[in-house]
Amino acid sequence: MKREDITNKIVKYLIQKDIIHNFYNVNLDASLSNEYGVDSLGFVDIIIYCEEEFEFEFDYIELDLSNFENINSLVNLIEKRVGLEL
User: Fold this and answer.
1) How far is CA 36 from CA 23, 42, 84, in A?
2) What was the pLDDT predicted at 29?
3) Per residue, what are the HEC states of 4-46?
4) Mind telling me which InterPro entries this protein's record contains (predicted)?
5) Which tens digit of pLDDT belongs to each residue from 20-73?
6) Angle, CA of 57, 36 and 18, to the nearest 5°
7) Which of 5, 28, 38, 86 has the fewest CB atoms within 10 Å of its CB?
8) Which residues, other chains included, contact 38 with Cβ-Cβ below 8 Å and sequence gap of 6+?
């Protein structure tokens, strides 16, 4: 799966959940908690979505908040789990 595809799926999900309001004006490095207001329940929703959408389960050690700081860090983690198509 291409990085762009992973990013687009996550951004579309965040738009669907009304966390992000404009697909074309997304800062991939903005803090999900500080900039976009994602709280602990929101992070649980994101984790569940990623596990279902990308068909894997996060390891306990991967559930560190630094892996969910922003969209880019989340995409990096998913790339490691599902592989990157070049």
Assistant:
1) 13, 10, 27
2) 98
3) HHHHHHHHHHHHHCCCCCCHHHCCCCCCCCCCCCCCHHHHHHH
4) ACP-like_sf, PP-bd_ACP
5) 988 888 999 999 999 999 999 999 999 999 999 999 999 999 999 999 999 999
6) 80
7) 86
8) 19, 32, 46
Task: Give the residue carrying structure tokens 């390891």.
Answer: 59
Region of 18 on the Ramachandran plot (φ > 0 left; ψ -120 to 50 alpha; else beta): left
Rounded CA-CA distance 70/32 in Å is: 5
Phi, psi of 60 (to 5 degrees): -55, -45
Give residue 54's domain range. 3-82
Number of structural domains found in the chain = 1
Phi and psi angles of residue 76, each rounded to the nearest 5 degrees, phi first? -60, -45
Residues 17, 42: contact at Cβ < 8 Å? yes
